[in-house]
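Q: What structure does this chain adopt?
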Amino acid sequence: MIRSVAALLCALVVAGTSGAIEISGPAEITTPGEYRLIADVAEGGITVRTGDVALDGNGHQVLGSSGAETRGLFIDGPVSNVTVRNLSLAGWEVGIEVRDADHVRVERVHAENCTANGIYVEHCREIEVQDCVASGNALPGIAIDASDGCRMSGTTAMGNADVGFYLAGSQNIAIEGCNASENGLNGIYFERTETARVRKCSLEKNGYPGVAAADTGGLEITDTSAFGNRLAAIWLDRTERSVITRNIATGSEAGLVIRNASARPFAGGNLWLTEQGVDGETVVLPTLGVWLHHLPAERVSF
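A:
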């Protein structure tokens, strides 16, 4: 059972010499301040229900038993100004869930082997995920839903059974300097998202295209490398106002796939070293009903 910090005994929460409140077991944080884990936590997670909180995991783990509707760390809004760092979570349905919050920073966190998502964000604003790892999760490693102004940097989504990074119904999204590799589906997938940027990322050996987008506008993909992704490096379906520049793709059937676009993307300076070669031709795969473009992107027409 999760208990309020105010009710926890000294064995679980005590004032540390550094001024941070020390946590050694499952807890519910309802008072602003600085908190620090001093031991691994099991048999319950940690819930934050107030703003102006800094939680330092101090390298410890929060371990679950893969039960339904369980979270290793739950930031339950409405709250603002929460920072979580230096923490590992494993064996939950969701490693970290952030809901109805703004100005939350998650850094140097590992979320793995969860039955749903490693990190899940919903109805939030200005969330930053930096230098984190989401691996071995059954659903998307990192999922952002119905949120605004979220940024992921230096973060890896690897070996998830579903998508690496999943962005749905959101806007003003940035994914920079991240890695998505060996995920069961796409490395990065945008759906019903408005204004998004992928920059200086690495997409390797994903089960479907490295980056895919559907019903999305204002997408910018630049300075990104894609290797060994199935079908294509980049796959755009029902998109508009896209910018695709200075990317490189190797080891896929195609570099860029476009279907049902409402406007021609601005594309140039890309190098598509695909399995079919850079041969200046457009290859049709009737079974997919799409056009696969192997030629330099500035020459693509449809």
